[in-house]
Amino acid sequence: AQSVAQPEDQVNVAEGNPLTVKCTYSVSGNPYLFWYVQYPNRGLQFLLKYITGDNLVKGSYGFEAEFNKSQTSFHLKKPSALVSDSALYFCAVRDRRSSSASKIIFGSGTRLSIRP
Amino acid sequence: SQTIHQWPATLVQPVGSPLSLECTVEGTSNPNLYWYRQAAGRGLQLLFYSVGIGQISSEVPQNLSASRPQDRQFILSSKKLLLSDSGFYLCAWSVENEQYFGPGTRLTVT
User: Fold this and answer.
1) pLDDT tens digit string along B37-56?
2) Do A51 and B102 touch (CB under 8 A)?
3) What is d(CA A68, CA B54) in angstroms, rounded to the nearest whole number?
4) I need a labelling partner for B25 at 20 to 30 A (CA). Which of A101, A114, B8, B41 fits?
5) DSSP characters over chain B
6) Is A51 helix (H, G, I), strand (E, B) or coil?
7) Which of A72, A69, A66, A57 minimizes the C-alpha distance to A20?
8) d(CA A5, CA B38)
9) Residues in chain B closer than 8 A to A104 (CB atoms)
10) Do B46 and A103 touch (CB under 8 A)?
């Protein structure tokens, strides 16, 4: 069975500092991994994905994530946080062996708060 | 480019009243479609997904139903709303490996 865990309900970072939002996953095969961001009262926006290839994936708004197979992690990072990065972030996983119609499993979300 | 629409954006309904939320997708054919509910601004609960017209899979037993009368139209319904149906409802579509979300409908059942 697939699962994804975001161990931190909230992450607080000062503007200009680096940020990390953690994600670990469990799938029986090799994963497709995703990060989404949600601003208040809005739908989820796609940030980035890992399919294959380079373990470091670059996405929108200066975010990147590193796929670590041995630690089954896909942490989201940004070198210098902006106040506008404050939002709810979701990690998601899908087993690449399953059909395209199968579900993407979402984590419980981490609220990122960037203080000026 | 593909876009996804949901309406209404917000809805306040009394307990026991019916519900119909609509989702339409433009710019793609035969998408997989999904309904999620998000409670209290946190995790997503998958309610239904559809791989084609008239094909609906339900993930959890509940007071809601879904229909897909056309290729790019996905409808979430209820005959009688419960207080526990309040939440933020998100429609999504996918092709291959990614899902894209609509703007959501905030439902408050009073």
Assistant:
1) 998 767 888 899 999 999 99
2) no
3) 40
4) B41
5) --EEEEE-SEEEE-TT--EEEEEEEES-SS-EEEEEEE-TTS-EEEEEEEEETTEEEESS-SS-EEEEEETTEEEEEESS--GGG-EEEEEEEEETTEEEE---EEEEE-
6) coil
7) A66
8) 17
9) 94, 99
10) yes
pLDDT tens digits along A8-49: 999 999 999 999 999 999 987 788 999 999 998 888 999 999
Residue type, A47: L
Query: Bridge partners of B94?
Result: B32, B99
Instruction: Quickly tell me which residue has 């008239």 as its tokens.
Output: B54
Pairing mode, strands A64-68 and B105-109? unpaired
Q: Amino acid identity of A81?
A: A
